[in-house]
Amino acid sequence: MGQSLATGAHRAGPGSGPARAGGDTLDRAESGLSRFPGAAVLVGPKGVVLDANAAGEPIVEMLGTDDGEALRQAILNALRDRSGQINPLVLNPGAGTTGLAFDVAILPWNNGEAALVLARDITLERSLRAALIESRQRYKDLVEAASDFAWETDEQGCFSFISSSGALGYGAAELIGVLAGDLDDTGMRDGESPFATRTPLREVEVWLKGREGESACLLATALPLYDAKGEWRGARGLCRNVTAERRHETRLAADRNRERLLSYILGLLRDEMDPARVLTAACGAVLPALPATGAAIYRLDRGGDIVRAAQSGDLPGGACMQALIQRQLDGESEVEIEASGGMLLGCATHFDGTWNGILCLWRDRTTEPWSREDRVLLAEIAAQIGLTNRQLARQEELEELSSTDSLTGLHNRRSLLAELERRFSRRAAWREGAALFFIDLDNFKAVNDRHGHQRGDLALTAVARILRDRTRSRDLVARLGGDEFAVFVEDIGQAATESKGREICQAAAELSALSGDAEHPLGFSIGAAYCFSVSQETVAEAVERADTAMYEVKRRGKGWVRVSIPAALEDGE
Description:
single chain; alpha+beta; Beta-Lactamase; five-stranded antiparallel sheet
């Protein structure tokens, strides 16, 4: 008896193996099915397997299991309806035929008395298709993992393909047909652009504009496309968005620049003895570090005026700077002013909580607005500048003390001689000559002897006042020591020199109330050295002439003036 396809008591149980008409096996040498190259199974009118070739054995085995229910039903339908049936068939691994797959065709046979099952083994084809699908998925996964998007351009440089995720905020369909050069944010030429490359490129950095107009930095790897004739037809490649990394690198670079700048300024404060040079160097170092178009440092001088201590680069017009300075004076710690040409940023400098200047920076319109990092760096630098401003003010105080007579506030001898050297070095610019007056206070000893040194100090400060009142701001007035004074006047003629000396002598009458007594009135003995602009006389020689003339007056009775001219020019005069 053959194997029945019917359910119930006549159906072979799972794993029992098929039964065939005529015995347990068929003589395939006598069967026509043995010559069929594929799997072939002949099923009788009652669903009994009548014959099968060797390739059909897996199908026969499946018919004897629960997994063959769909195939058995298709065979019964073909027998009942006498119509062909086509079904795919995958054999159950449990039947010992792991991975086998067939395309099955069921044909009515012998006027519907039997059904011929013909099967084509598509196991390899299905395996290849599955491998191809897996390979494509793997490729897609690798592309997506290695890049943000894949692309292809045509010979016009327009996008002809964009991976499904899209790019730069655009959907993939939105970019098809768009000229890649229209998205370029750096002005690259075609030969430089990966989207129009004629040679392979690997991780070339390009900047493109996104959907919202923002700039994005991409690393592009590209290959050129050529047709069979060697004609260039476009390019394809991958792009990875590294904007976040570049911005992070920019921030790190800015932090490193900031650290270097602060270290540089701190090094200047430590190693440079001259605060003025520190300010000049710091001003220049700020420009590339921030960056800025111009920088300036202002400070409060001893007279309470705002003066510019250092400048580097270009700065805006005076009105803009004056507005910034005024707002700083009004108490604003940080001031930003926008002008037509750019942006001005100023930060107050302090020492020990007291305002002492301004550090200001200027950027033109070609650069970005001031960022939070810029402001933080500016504040840190301003803190160091405040210390330097204080050091410069202290240095000026010390220099003033070292060059000023403490009692009268006049130049002292050292300061006078230094200034005389400077003025004699440019004497060719004198419109006329110059005069150096040495003034000795007559009868000063009597004041100290009779009234004490306090009265003597009052007399000396009164002399200083008289001399200041009778000279110009650009003239030099000095106390040489004790009761000796000096006055240097530029652009004065020889006759006017004698008149000026007499004027000063007559002013001594203002000192009468401070004299020791009526018999010893305070007065002046004056020796003047007249100096010609064409003379090569040294300062020391002029001082000696003035001193000699003054002592000649003292020796001959005091209270008058003697003018001396260089011996080499006496005859000519």
